[in-house]
Amino acid sequence: MTETTPSTPKAPTVVRTPEELARLRASMGRVALVPTMGALHQGHRSLMSAARGHADTVVVSIFVNPLQFGPNEDYDRYPRTLDADLRVCAEEGVDVVFAPGVEVMYPGEQIVTVDAGKMGRVLEGEFRPGFFEGVLTVVAKLFNLVRPDVAVFGQKDAQQVAVVRRMVRDLCLPVTVVAAPTVRDGDGLATSSRNVYLSAAERDSALALSRALLAGADASSGGPEAILAAARKVLDAAAGAVPPVLVDYLALVDPATFTDVRPGHRGSAVLAVAAWVGETRLIDNVPLTL
Ligand code: AMP
Fold first, then answer.
1. Ligand 1 atom 6: the closest Cα is on which residue?
2. Pair 270, 158: CB distance under 8 Å
3. Among 43, 41, 19, which residue's Cα sits nearest to residue 180?
4. CA angle 49, 53, 57 (to 5 degrees)
5. Most CB contacts within 10 A, which of 74, 118, 148, 265?
6. Residues that bind beta-alanine, according to the entry (predicted)?
């Protein structure tokens, strides 16, 4: 009788410095980069598997970027789970993990940054001033350090995808941006590293976000006003739940510019929502065709 032992997936090469990365780069062939802040979940796994279809070498970066957190945000308590993350990367067949320290990414004062312009001042940018500047600055650094052919981002952060695409276009960066669909748990909640903050009751309340988006999507034949009204109705009810859902914004926007769609708009749109449940801020969105 032959005994079968479960095969251990091959561990990725862990790289900590730009110098090690540069040494490896020549032998990587076509590279797909998946930028993350770690605390990896099913959403990240789906990006890794999408990346595999675009490249010889899949690189995952794991870096909790201080520049994109506001002074009162959760930088200090953001989950950091590198050992578990490396196991996830191994299971997903990731080749290289780039996990630099803060001193590697920000060795001194960051004087020059990348500004997302007017796209960085609406919706997420309005409620999180400096957020997209922090995101674009670290993404630009990662692009220059890893030199990927393709970079994979999640549709879950739809405005992030839009501003990164715009940066690539406006600054002529030699990278193809790929967006992968949002992964949800069975109850509809979009998977997020921040979901670990939610108590059971908060998680129940948080389901209003995906329910509102679904209600909006169901009303799409009625046009922008009907979509927003249907979603708003669900969120208004959730404002009275215990614990309550407190909405930062609900908006129906053009997926490329993130400006509000006009009445009578036809074509693609994104219905996006951000809300607080307890101490946790959640975002979600759904792409629509009107
Ligand atoms: P984060 O680690 O939260 O910065 O996310 C890293 C990447 O994973 C970003 O491109 C996110 O949009 C993506 N991502 C996060 N959650 C999901 C999800 N539920 N589905 C798909 N992509 C996701």
1. 36
2. yes
3. 43
4. 85
5. 148
6. 68
DSSP 59-98: EEEE---GGGS-TTSSTTTS---HHHHHHHHHHTT--EEE
Q: Is 44 designated active site?
A: yes
Tokens representing 74 are 């959760």
68 marked as part of a ligand binding site: yes
Measured by CA distance, the residue closest to atom 11 of ligand 1 is: 154
Q: Which fold has domain 13-180?
A: Rossmann fold (3.40.50)
How much is the pTM? 0.96
| CA of residue 179 to ligand 1 center, whole Å | 10
What is the per-residue pLDDT across 163-179, written as a single tens digit (0 to 9) for each?
Answer: 999 999 999 999 999 99
Tell me which CATH code domain 195-289 carries.
3.30.1300.10
Domain regions of the chain by residue span: 13-180, 195-289
Instruction: Calculate the dihedral angle through the C-alpha atoms of 111, 114, 116, 121, rounding to the nearest 10 degrees.
Output: -20
Instruction: Give strand ranges (E) for the chain.
Output: 13-15, 31-36, 57-62, 96-98, 150-154, 176-180, 245-253, 268-277, 280-289
191 CA closest ligand 1 atom index:
19
State pLDDT tens for residues 224-253: 999 999 999 999 999 999 999 999 999 999
Asked if residue 153 has its Cβ within 6 Å of ligand 1, the reply is yes
